[in-house]
Amino acid sequence: MTASVPALVPAPKRFLVRDGSFRLKADVPIVLSPGADDADFAAACALRDGLAVRCGLELPIEAHARTDDLGPHIGLRRDAHDSTRAGKWRSGASPGDDHLVRVETDCVSLVGFGPAGLRYAVESLIQLVGSNGRIPHCAIEDSPDFAIRGVML
Q1: I need a surface site. Which of 65, 112, 119, 125 has the fewest CB within 10 A?
Q2: Which stretches of 56-148 are DSSP H helices?
Q3: Which residues are paired to 15 by β-bridges?
């Protein structure tokens, strides 16, 4: 299973791959949490568009108050309160850039601790999706190395 997992760019701080995969299908929704704003919707649109390119599926974007009985879905949410829990793996960059990705049998969960973090989680997930619509079961915890990033030419 590990051989089929692509290398992520940039490499995350923690990346644990497990056996199995989540299978995308046309009826799997991208679910925004209650209170989602325009930045969250933009991240959901970026995910929808990225998945369309990667595996040819254009998933619906929905908002739900509860996800317990929703069935297979991709959940996007922001949670500023969990950034203190993530302090063990953070490097000192802006806490809003931190993000988590969890891929399990019936759910994919993307958590950003700010708008940028949610977008980074989306970009990580898009890289994991195979052309067959399968995403390996995994857990990613990541944050940028530097609060201010740039390129020197």
Answers
A1: 65
A2: 115-128
A3: 140
- Judged by DSSP in three states, 41 sits in helix
Single-letter residue type at 65: A
Alpha carbons 111 and 7: distance in angstroms, whole number: 20
How far CA 116 is from CA of 28, 65, 78, 133, in Å, comes to 24, 23, 10, 25
Query: Angle 99-91-116 (CA atoms, 0-180°, nearest 5)?
Result: 35
Q: Mind listing the pLDDT tens digit for each residue in 92-124?
A: 567 789 999 999 999 999 999 999 999 999 999
The answer to pTM > 0.85 is yes
Closest C-alpha among 98, 109, 93, 85 to residue 141: 98
